[in-house]
TrEMBL record:
Signal is among the record's keywords: yes
NCBIfam families: flgA_cterm (TIGR03170)
Function: Involved in the assembly process of the P-ring formation. It may associate with FlgF on the rod constituting a structure essential for the P-ring assembly or may act as a modulator protein for the P-ring assembly.
Protein name per Swiss-Prot or TrEMBL: Flagella basal body P-ring formation protein FlgA
Subcellular location per the Swiss-Prot or TrEMBL entry: Periplasm
Chain's gene name: flgA
SMART domains: SAF (SM00858)
Organismal lineage: Bacteria, Pseudomonadati, Thermodesulfobacteriota, Desulfuromonadia, Geobacterales
Alphabetic keyword roster: Bacterial flagellum biogenesis, Cell projection, Cilium, Flagellum, Periplasm, Signal
Major place of residence: periplasm
Coiled coil start-end: none
Length: 236
């Protein structure tokens, strides 16, 4: 009788072990890399840029508690989506954070970019013959690049630019049409009326910029939008 009892307990213990939930689950290296790849794809989607992940600095598999696994990927705020960066990968199981990983990546990116054909000095205004569009690797470039010649023609260089280099956003600026101290015509209009007054610009502004303008009749200063080299408009 005693032997039977011991054998029954042993059988029950084995049965319990056979049906117990696994203590961990394994998330393969490839699934982690797929999450990073998808993040980069979404970040650069619609930009006209062809990207290739040259390196994802993650090795091995993840051992996690059982449950539903989700990934959240975040990048440094100033990272455009190409070149080198350290991405943060947050791994959750059933909504609970289980891992917070730093994953180095290197992304190759090719896109049509505007390339300057001659060296530019500060203040040079770009003409149609000064630029061309070429397919270039953006990996070593930082900041926004121009992708069509129409974006840059008529703008001027804020700093010297070497020949045969892609033009970046911070290198160019619009040419001011209105300069501080200049007399301008202030236009106030809506569907029912149109009024004009003479004013003095209190700042420089290119087309579309908002500048402060002093109405010489009332001596009040108002914000106005630059229309052309001698006209600003007050919107209301």
């Amino acid at each position: 009788m005693r032997l039977v009892t011991l054998m029954t307990v042993l059988v029950l213990a084995v049965a319990t072990a056979a049906f117990a939930a696994p203590a961990t689950q394994t998330i393969s290296n490839s699934k982690v890399k797929d999450a990073v790849t998808e993040f980069v794809r979404q970040k650069t989607e619609g930009l006209g840029i062809d990207t290739t992940l040259r390196r994802i600095g993650f090795q091995g598999d993840l051992k996690l508690p059982p449950g539903e696994v989700s990934f959240e990927v975040a990048a440094p705020s100033r990272w455009e989506g190409w070149g080198k960066a350290n991405l943060a990968l947050i791994v959750r199981v059933n909504g609970r954070v289980e891992r917070n990983l730093t994953i180095p990546v290197e992304v190759e990116a090719f896109a049509d970019t505007v390339v300057v054909l001659r060296a530019l000095e500060r203040g040079d205004v770009i003409g149609p013959d000064d630029v061309t569009v070429q397919r270039r690797d953006l990996s070593s470039l930082s900041g926004r690049v121009y992708q069509s010649a129409e974006e840059v023609v008529g703008k001027r260089a804020r700093m010297p630019v070497r020949a045969n280099m892609p033009l970046r956003g911070e290198q160019l600026e619009k040419v001011p049409l209105v300069k501080s101290g200049q007399l301008v015509t202030i236009v106030i209009e809506n569907q029912a009326m149109r009024l004009t007054a003479t004013g003095k610009a209190r700042g420089n502004g290119a087309e579309g910029d908002i500048v402060k303008v002093q109405n010489l009749g009332s001596l009040k200063e108002v914000p106005a939008r630059v229309i052309d080299s001698g006209t600003v408009q007050v919107d209301f």
